[in-house]
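Ligand: alpha-D-psicofuranose. Inputs:
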Amino acid sequence: MNQFNDQESGVFDDALLTTLGRQAIELPSWAFGNAGTRFKVYGTPGTPRTIQEKIADAAQVHRLTGLAPSVALHIPWDLVDDFGKLAAFADDQGVRLGTINSNTFQDDDYKFGSLTHVDPAIRRKAVDHHLRCIEVMDATGSRDLKIWLPDGTNYPGQGDLRGRQDRLAESLRTIYDRLGPDQRLVLEYKIFEPFFYTMDVPDWGTAFAHVTALGERALVCLDTGHHAPSTNIEFIVAQLLRLGKLGSFDFNSRFYADDDLIVGAADPFQLFRILAEVVRGGGLDDGSPVAFMLDQCHNIEDKIPGQIRSVLNVQEMTARALLIDTESLRAAQDAGDVLAANAVYMDAFYTDVRPALGDWRESRGLPRDPMAAYATSGYAELIAAERAGGVQAGWGA
Ligand code: PSV
Ligand code: MN
Ligand code: MN
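Predicted complex:
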């Protein structure tokens, strides 16, 4: 049975609505700051000057979409004196503070590595930074510490690859052991950049090996922009879910490398395939360990509508993935009917769910068209006037 009972009028069935109602997509605080390439950073009027203003902007996305109830912080970019107070501020805005991201990529000491550095004093400094991040989590009530490491080498022979892995394992162990019983460590991998010969966590296998050695509350973060071209990302999703080690997604899209473009913009079909495996593997079930996050930078488009578009894209592809007629698909697969199986799959992908999602929003008191609602809300004009002349928070702070 197709779960999309009445495609003409765009009605979802109850099971699908329940799953959609559960979906939450975390926004990164850094998406609201000005970003760019190494050639130029174009500013946007109204860019947040403080973490409070970033949270207020993120709350605007949630108000209009009902999809983004939490905001990820980056330490030290979003450092404040009182994180309890910041959590209360977020609560007043109608959102909460989510994943804490560590940063070991803006300090001269880390030129040759942070958690993998040969010098024990620098390794200790990097470990201490993560322990400080866990203190922040204690104050904010955040569950996840996300570690993306900029460590690696540029030239063959530059470093002892094996020794770097051993030091990484030891550093991660110290960090993991400090976590509270309800906290998790998610380890993000990336094939290249900032280093071009080796990265110390270049792929899901390396991340998996480390988190498996650490324990149950250590999981892998899959950033959709961090693989070689042509990598079958949905296969990795299926495997990590099967192994119980998929902790979170950093969603974005890319044409070339780590482009950090709006999720679903470059390849909507890939996003569908990924979400189909998420659904298949129970990643959207009640109590699933999989956290959905965005990791994007809006270099030329306005940030708030950029984030609105992104969460809507994730929801749209989730709804399409939930429409896969799993019974017919299984029957065709079991019968070896290649074309029928592919047709069932593609039927779901080609279903236009936008009218039904408009209904879903209206039934929850949300605007039918959040992009249009934002454009006429006056918020962009308000922040442009209020924040004129300020210095943005984040990268430069
Ligand atoms: C660097 O590639 C990166 O984009 C990683 O994906 C992190 O998640 C993000 O920065 C924030 O630290
Ligand atoms: Mn990322
Ligand atoms: Mn990245």
